[in-house]
DNA sequence: AAGATTGTTGCTTA
DNA sequence: TTAAGCAACAATCT
């Protein structure tokens, strides 16, 4: 469930910690997630460093110092990227608030643990661990051309200049699918997952079952504004932890306290007090207030 | 103990 | 040809 705000939090954390550090070794614990053989994968990384970290929606791409290749990482449902410095301190001493013991518990014990699929070692500086309970995530090498091709197939990115009302309208235009399904579709709008779609629709007063092409202009405008604000605020609070998500220091996100409907089925709507319903829409558990969302 | 679970792809159906 | 719906991926939790 890392969605845009969670992935962006990890990106910013890692930018401070791993840029320019030489990769000394690569341990692949689960071959499935690297999408190539171990030798090729390790050869592409060893001896190089990361010069930058970019993001498109929920996809991270680490630029390599060879100026040719990128390491693409997608966390899918349960992936975590956790950096441990040379002294064994999780997150490299940054933003450590809670006790380290509870943190270790949260990430499944000392690293590497049974869910660690990949470790990228930076000599004595530290190690980046990729944990993933369900093994849906991946880490693979791609060159600039391939990355460009992947980005071409993706939708508009919120929080960038292309996320104008006009472009948002175009991204929604002429589709009979429900607005919930449409907002989840990464070919049109990037970075929203189940949590933020439910929240955005609540904040916009739009029923998730509404057909996309039946939305009024004012509703699209509202939704556009809401999505921008919601994502900004969620990043500010370092994302939402519902079950597995942690930042690069193994810490939970703090946005959960602001969730209005997600995970609150049966509780009362914060606006009107009506019971929040949970239905299935677009193949996903969908939370909404039947009174506020028309 | 069957059914549900956060993301995405690709197959099937219409 | 296109779009919508849904199983599959793997593991865990209820």
Largest sheet: 4 strands, antiparallel
Class from secondary-structure proportions = alpha+beta
Cα end-to-end separation: 27 Å
Strand content: 15-25%
Number of helices: 8
Q: What do the pLDDT scores average to? A: 90
Q: Report the principal-axis shape.
A: globular
> What is the total tally of β strands?
10
| H and E string | HEHEEEEHEEEHHHHHEE
Q: Point out poorly predicted stretches.
A: 94-102
In order across it, which strands form the biggest sheet?
1-6-7-5
User: Helix amount, in percent?
Assistant: 25-40%
Radius of gyration: 20 Å
How is this structure best summarized?
With 294 residues, the chain is of the alpha+beta class. It is built from eight helices and ten strands. The chain has helices spanning 4-18, 38-45, 100-106, 144-152, 165-172, 179-184, 194-204, 217-236; strands spanning 25-28, 50-56, 59-64, 69-74, 79-85, 116-122, 126-132, 138-143, 277-281, 284-288.
Overview of the structural elements:
The chain has 294 residues and is an alpha+beta fold. Helices cover 29% and strands 20% of the residues. It has eight helices and ten strands. It has helices spanning 4-18, 38-45, 100-106, 144-152, 165-172, 179-184, 194-204, 217-236; strands at residues 25-28, 50-56, 59-64, 69-74, 79-85, 116-122, 126-132, 138-143, 277-281, 284-288. Strands 1-6-7-5 form a four-stranded antiparallel sheet, covered by helices on one side. β6 (116-122) and β7 (126-132) form a beta hairpin. α1 (4-18) packs parallel to α8 (217-236) and α7 packs across α8. The protein is globular and about 55 Å long. The protein starts with a helix and ends in a 6-residue tail after the last strand. The structure holds a DNA duplex (14 and 14 nucleotides).
